[in-house]
Every structure is written in structure tokens, then in C-alpha cells.
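Input C-alpha cells:
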């Protein structure tokens, strides 16, 4: 089942910058799709349009059988950005239940949901901690937990691990795949500059050209999940990374 379709989608900003030109794509339920491309090629712009945060200037976006605005207001999509953007003065648990507080869900249910997602991201002992007591990797885990608390059908992740050190980044990649496999048919769309990250995580990679951004190539990573740490050392992994890097150069 298609959960996201872009048909000839373009975006020209008011200052005349053509950020995206005639993007076409079709994403199915349960996929993990990454977008790679040089800085400024329009990856975030595509995301913002699909998530209903910005309007295309041409073309059509169908998401979960409706418009991006409908998907956003029905809480069926969640976003995670590079900055964890946690409220510094409230606990991890309060940060996580924020989307449920806004929806005025019963308090008991909120706390149960917080416990569920804290376990998913391995932070069950930190519910009462304040964000300043956490490392960068832990803050990102909280940010992911907050995005998962509303059980989204599509999770948009825009360079979520870009500010983390390499070891933390790899650990979070593995954890993210585990979480994704535990959720029922959640689709993940992931922006990254990093070909290694894209190959490790995705079942499909969209390669974008420099501005104006177009989707120039689509690479399927035909390696079954769970992939495990050993996949990074496998020749298939380096072959796919080379394929993505070459595609980025053309
Ligand atoms: N609000 C805006 N007004 C004008 N131009 C913009 C706006 N937002 C983005 N742009 C421009 O549109 C182009 C695409 O930006 P976008 O952020 O989508 O790229 P990106 O691929 O996500 O970049 P990066 O990898 O550096 O985050 C860039 O040239 C950027 O400067």
C-alpha cells in the first residue's frame, strides 16, 4: 500500500530559489527510505512539504490517503530533527508526553505510554531526569521516544544523528532498526548526508542532485533485516556504499 506519493512536485521559495524540481516518488507502508544528496539539494524541503509544514508550488502530494495537512492534524506523522529540542525545565517523562498532553489524553494513559517508549529506547531509568543530565545520544533517544509516543504511521527523521560522535551514531542506528522492526508497519523516511548510514539503515535510497533538487537515482538495498553489526564489515555493504557514492557524483 502506498503511504506517500509525490507527483511532479516542485518548490520555488519566495526569493526565487528553486529548491525542488519535479520530484516523483512512491513509498510503501513499512519501508525505510533514505534521502541522500549534497547540502542544499532540497532534502529538508521535500520533508517539510510531505509533513505538511510547507506548501509545494507545483505538483501533488498524497500521504496516507489524504493531504499532508490532514496527516499532520490527525497525528499520523511525527518528525525528529538533528536538534533534540527538549524543554530544559521539565523531566524526560514530561518531554515525552508533551504530544499527549496537547491532546488532553488521560494522565494515567500518558504515563503508561511514556513508560512504553522509554523502554523502547532503553531509557526506562531516566523518566525523572532533566535533559541537562543526559548525553547527546540520550537526548536524541528522548527525542525519538517523543516522536513514537503518538504511534505515528510515518516517522520523518531529518539528519537525526548528524551531531553525534561516530560510535554513538552507529549504536543509535542499530537501535533505530530494532525499534522500527518492533513497530507494526511504521514507515521511516530518513535524511542523511552519509552514504554509510543510508546503506546500513534503508531498504531503498533516493539519491538527489545538487540544487535544484531532483531525485536522480533510486537504489534498492537487497539485504534482509535484522542486519546486525556484522553487515558493516560485509563486502555487500562496501559495494552498496560505493554505488551510492558514485551515484552522488553523477
Ligand atoms: N525558507 C527559505 N527561503 C529561501 N530559500 C530557502 C528556504 N529554505 C531553504 N532554502 C534554500 O533551498 C535550498 C534547499 O534547502 P534544503 O534545506 O531543503 O536543503 P537540504 O538538502 O536539506 O540541505 P542540508 O543538507 O544542508 O540540510 C537551499 O539552497 C536553501 O538555501
Amino acid at each position: 500500500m502506498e503511504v506517500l506519493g509525490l507527483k511532479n512536485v516542485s518548490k520555488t521559495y519566495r526569493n526565487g530559489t528553486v529548491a525542488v524540481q519535479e520530484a516523483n516518488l512512491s513509498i510503501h507502508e513499512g519501508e525505510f527510505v533514505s534521502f541522500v544528496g549534497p547540502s542544499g539539494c532540497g532534502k529538508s524541503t521535500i520533508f517539510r512539504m510531505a509533513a505538511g509544514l510547507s506548501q509545494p508550488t507545483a505538483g501533488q502530494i498524497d500521504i496516507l490517503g489524504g493531504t499532508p495537512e490532514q496527516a499532520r492534524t490527525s497525528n499520523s506523522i511525527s518528525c525528529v530533527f538533528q536538534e533534540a529540542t527538549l524543554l530544559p525545565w521539565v523531566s524526560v517523562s514530561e518531554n515525552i508526553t508533551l504530544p499527549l498532553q496537547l491532546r488532553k489524553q488521560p494522565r494515567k494513559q500518558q504515563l503508561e505510554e511514556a513508560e512504553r517508549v522509554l523502554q523502547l529506547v532503553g531509557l526506562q531509568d531516566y523518566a525523572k531526569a532533566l535533559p541537562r543530565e543526559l548525553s547527546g545520544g540520550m537526548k536524541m533517544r528522548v527525542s525519538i521516544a517523543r516522536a513514537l509516543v503518538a504511534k505515528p504511521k510515518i516517522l520523518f527523521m531529518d539528519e537525526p544523528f548528524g551531531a553525534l560522535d561516530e560510535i554513538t551514531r552507529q549504536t543509535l542506528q542499530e537501535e533505530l532498526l530494532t525499534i522500527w522492526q518492533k513497530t507494526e508497519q511504521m514507515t521511516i523516511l530518513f535524511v542523511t548526508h552519509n552514504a554509510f548510514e543510508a546503506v546500513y539503515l534503508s531498504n531503498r535510497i533516493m539519491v538527489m542532485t545538487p540544487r535544484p533538487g531532483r531525485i536522480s537515482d533510486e537504489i534498492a538495498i537487497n539485504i534482509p533485516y535484522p542486519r546486525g553489526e556484522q553487515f558493516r564489515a560485509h563486502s555487500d555493504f562496501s559495494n552498496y556504499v560505493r554505488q551510492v557514492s558514485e551515484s552522488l557524483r553523477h
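The first helix runs from residue 43 to 50. The CA atoms of residues 108 and 225 lie 35 Å apart.
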